[in-house]
């Protein structure tokens, strides 16, 4: 295989490194940075996405301590993967079978709750420009949503709950309804746009842009 970007070596070598990272993940007291590193490698080297999915299914099948900390770390990374990448169709079928089997064997367990969350995420994931931010990984580990603050001229900021799949168009519509209500603009012909602003630039956000990707760029 040819060398990858960002000083990566061959795909084979990177696959071995990822396998070693997965082994380390089981023992990490703070797994978030390691999870983000694994996700970033998969984003940079897409052929490794199926490999990591297969490894995570293997690690969460017949674990030594079902529901233990190490087992849940694997389920949490699998959750982050499902919100970031879609596997190939054969691996997707294999993964869904694994999720069904887990829910059947361990009903009402944490593993079953992650399996249910992952199945729903796979139905929404379209692919990401950026890997999840550290904040997003933390909320995904708890199967929760993030709170996004949108600053509005002439009005208090709006707090919007978003998931890994929430688009700018969905947030823009929510904020527009809030502003119309707060400022009495029901008869106004004005349109609303969502902007991404940093110290270096300000630019409009495309309707299909995922808000989670913007939050990662801010991070």
TrEMBL record:
GO cellular component: cytoskeleton
Gene3D superfamilies: MyTH4 domain (1.25.40.530), Phosphatidylinositol 3-kinase Catalytic Subunit, Chain A, domain 1 (3.10.20.90)
Family matches, as InterPro entries: Actin_motor_Myosin, MyTH4_dom, MyTH4_dom_sf
Domain MyTH4: 1-141
Record's protein name: Pleckstrin homology domain-containing family H member 3
Gene source species: Eudyptes chrysocome (Western rockhopper penguin)
Lineage, highest ranks first: Eukaryota, Metazoa, Chordata, Craniata, Vertebrata
